[in-house]
Amino acid sequence: MKKAFRISIKILGIIFLLIIIVGLGGYWYINSTFLSFEKDYTENSDINELTIDGYTFLDRNGNSKIDIYEDDRKTTDERVEDLLNQMNLEEKIHLLKGSGMASAVGIGNTAVPGAVGTIVPTPRLGIPTIYLSDGPAGLRIAPKREGEERTYYCTAFPIGTLLSSTWNTNLVKEIGTAMGTEAKEYGIDVILGPGANIHRHPLCGRNFEYYSEDPVLTGFIGAAMVNGIESQGVGTSVKHFVANNQETDRNFNDVIVTDRAMREIYLKGFEIIVEKSQPWTIMSSYNKVNGTYVPERKDLMTDILRDDWQYQGLVMTDWFGGDNAPAMIAAGNDLLEPGTKKQWKALKKAAENGTLSEEEINTSARRILRLIVQSKKMQNYQYSNNPDLDVHAKIARQSATEGMILLKNEQTLPIQKAKNIALLGVTSFDFIAGGTGSGDVNEAYTVSLEEGLKNAGFEINQASKKIFETHKANHKEQFIKPEGFSAMTTPYIPPRMTYTETELKEIVASSDLGIITIGRNSGEGGDRVEVDDFLLSEKEQNMITKVCEAFHAVNKKVVVVMNIGGVIETDSWKTQPDAILLAWQGGQEGGNSVADIISGKVNPSGKLPMTFPINLNDHASNANFPMEGGTLDMLKMIFSSREEKPEHEKIKNKDYTNYEEDIYVGYRHFDKANLDVSYPFGFGLSYTTFDLSNLNVTMKNDTINLMVTITNSGDLAGKEVVQVYTSKPDTKIDRPLKELRTFAKTKSLNAGETTSLTLQIPVSELSYWSENTSQWVLEKGIYSIQVGTSSRDIQLKMEVEMN
Ligand code: BGC
Description:
Layout: H1 2-35, E1 48-52, E2 55-59, H2 76-86, H3 89-95, E3 117-119, E4 130-134, H4 160-165, H5 169-185, E5 190-192, H6 215-230, E6 235-241, E7 254-256, H7 259-266, H8 268-277, E8 281-284, E9 288-289, E10 292-293, H9 298-308, E11 314-316, H10 325-331, H11 341-353, H12 358-374, H13 389-403, E12 405-409, E13 420-424, H14 426-429, H15 449-455, E14 459-460, H16 462-474, H17 484-489, H18 501-510, E15 513-519, H19 530-534, H20 538-553, E16 557-563, E17 579-582, H21 590-598, E18 612-613, H22 634-639, E19 656-658, H23 667-672, E20 677-679, E21 690-700, E22 703-712, E23 721-727, E24 739-745, E25 754-762, E26 768-770, E27 775-777, E28 781-790, E29 793-802
Parallel strand pairs: 4-5, 5-6, 6-8, 7-9, 7-19, 8-11, 13-14, 13-15, 15-16, 16-17
Antiparallel strand pairs: 1-2, 3-4, 9-10, 12-17, 18-20, 21-22, 22-25, 23-24, 23-28, 26-27, 28-29
Bound molecules: beta-D-glucopyranose (BGC).
């Protein structure tokens, strides 16, 4: 007995020891491969200031002389060349990949905890670490630091889709400026955004980070964002270049697409952004295009981006993106993020055996050095860690209000008399600020709809509030929001509510108006699904029907607020409520912004950046899109082999996706197929009305110049968006019936006020991409210029002739 006991103890001891050894070994492996493997390349903080001949500079390499790269009176090019000459090959290779994930997961010494990536410092030359962090809706860094009382919260601005719904490039630039300031003051050098992928299909889980189904809207808004952020000396990383339109198997998915669809739809938004804003960086996407990983495609990384578009900045991978490190550098993807030891070894080996030439290494290192030299870090900017979050909250509120879209309004809004408002549905109380994953922000607070309405002076109905509170108390666990890393991978979906007839009676009797909020959330790593997500759940449908019936029975009105990040079905229920406000996810001030519109403090002026279809299947892309949803599998993303599967094992819409709809994405398809939609691209109501008149079109120097008069013909001040589409009626090829070419938003026009807008379209923008000759071709003859306030509300037309 005793002996058996001793043996068991021994065995247990050995197992325990093995677990510890495996655990320590595993930690050592992960730490030295992925987290922190640049022990000899840590930032040199021992740099002295010197004054020589009356000029003060930082003697970064400690040689007591002024080197060209230390002298900020020299041009960026001169400084970069000097640095490149002074660096040895090994130092240059170190630049080509980040230093691992340590800062992102809060391990080790890092100046900015939570920053997801770095550019490696060069200690010998006193070159600083450059910090990179997400993302499109505001900066994402760790809000708390060990041993510190104070917090490092950031402003949650509205999601990208809401920003494009403003159709207001000046406003978006202002938001970008605020984001850039915030990054600068928290010591971040590059914001990993904006997102410029096209909404190919409504269920892409990351559509909320992106702008539109249309490349021109994407390009104009994206460029405004880049110009805003970069005005602060902080870089951007426009992502995910290119054709990353689904999250399902995003690290392996092969997009099968024509050159024409690439040029006219998927690349076009990026092209406009490069032309209008020359972003410091672009982030290549995870997916393959026609069989090859994007960062390994020289045609995309160099021929198109650099040669065709004259892009001057650097390209970095998405996190752990691509497969073959030297092939990525050779193709023109300059920086591998967040960097792994495996990549370091592969690059070093390739440099040694000549598969990667010194010239190729220099080309990428030069682009990276250019960013470093331009950065605030290199100017020794002393960041305050105290951005003005109050000012930024105001900008967030104003922009959210401007991007919300009034879809329906039957003499209901703005609320005139109602004092007591009944809030229905979980989301009314648990408002959603933004999507999940890397597009999320760690903000200090989120104003819920309830708080927003209270702030605006409304009373919140206590009967409906009590029912929500009981519901929440009964489902405590499901109301706990995942935080930190698990917020990236675990969706937060609190259970929905129903109301009994008695409850509804009490609510209706004690309130003046009902607001139902429909909430949706999604994020990185998974796509949405049709049932209970695109389509309303049975509970939600019942809630809308029952609530509308109960309120209407006593002549009281119901408003539906959609607090969503992507398109949902609206056609089957939109007749029931009296008003529908598409509030999107408005960032931390979302509840206040909705209240601003509902109360009439602000007249809505948002317009849809995508079509709301009747059925999902009406989208041509629906024939080729993964419909199963899913969440992010980090381990698969980092560790899975990128080896090509045999043809017969490949699964449609996972291993590969056929973009069979070609250029017919969004309204281009709905118009061509003559399909009814629930709400068309460009649509959005106002509390006032506008008239367009006096379209004048002239041609000068290969540019079409338009002038149009716009009058506020209603009773309230408001803004309107003028949208210009073109078509080629007698085209010899297959072309969309209408394509957005430019747009402009008026300032706030008082009732009766008239203004005129001038807009321009370069003639070259009327070209199509010829598959036969691999170039842009301008068809001769008549083009129709169509001006309206949505893609299906064209009010003025004129023709121009191209010879
Ligand atoms: C996302 C990027 C993001 C990066 C860093 C990736 O998983 O796809 O958009 O910038 O992580 O967080």
